[in-house]
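Moderator note: this is an archived Q&A kept for reference. The question asked for a predicted structure of one protein chain; the sequence and the answer are reproduced below.
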Amino acid sequence: MTLMGHDLQGQVIRPPAEAESILLQVTLGCSHNKCQFCPAYKGKRFAFVPPERVTAALGHAAAHLPDVRRLFLCDGDALILPQERLEALLGEIRERLPQVTRIAAYANAKALARKSGAELARLRALGLSTLYLGLESGDDATLADMGKWGDVQEHLRQAAKAKAAGLKLSVTVLLGLGGKGRAREHAQATGLALSRMDPEQAAALALMVVPGTPLHARLERGAFEPQDDQGLLRELYWLLEATELSGGLFFSNHASNPLRLKLRLPRDKQAGLALVQAALDGQAPLVPQAYRRL
């Protein structure tokens, strides 16, 4: 048992913004779980959490967390639940936790593709408000190389459908995912894709190659060349340069990043580019390696 979650099974990942949220585990693992770089759910077989366990967790939250107003649906693929089950779940949350005003979940293009626009709008009406979408790259070659489900156009279609349903989007991308060989193509295409999605929030994390992942095995045999700090900074510059948001937040403040930014675009774009350039020129300090982690 944890402070914000009840009877959580296995490794549980949540966005930094959900640190103070009730963590409600409704699925285990990820229904895709084939991304080369992702260590999150290796060894955890995908499954739906039985309804009685979810109900017990809601009872725990009602008894012990009556003032917490945010809730996050775990694991990495909660939106893959059948529509009828999701609607019933959101209704139960509203009934058992009336103080909750914000419900969020991870979503991938695969799960979104299984929902119609009307179904997503129904989930929004029942209280789901924010989806965390892992785009990772706007470059089709990089997505295919890393085993992501769906190409860039598929991600754009699903993001547009979610936004049309009234859902807010927080989109994650990964600096360094194309390695040194495809750095510029990956970074610039990712900025262009973010611009077309126009999410309320975009977050750039730095790739960390974790032992036990397929990507780490490639690294060990010399089949993947990771970026150094200068390469990550160049990618961050190219990414930010290509990104046009209509008022969204742009972050690179995850613990994995060598340089941490928090910008409101388009207002802060030039200031952000100037800071990245200063870091490239050695005029702005980087986060020490010892303080970077997933």
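Archived answer notes: The radius of gyration is 19 Å.
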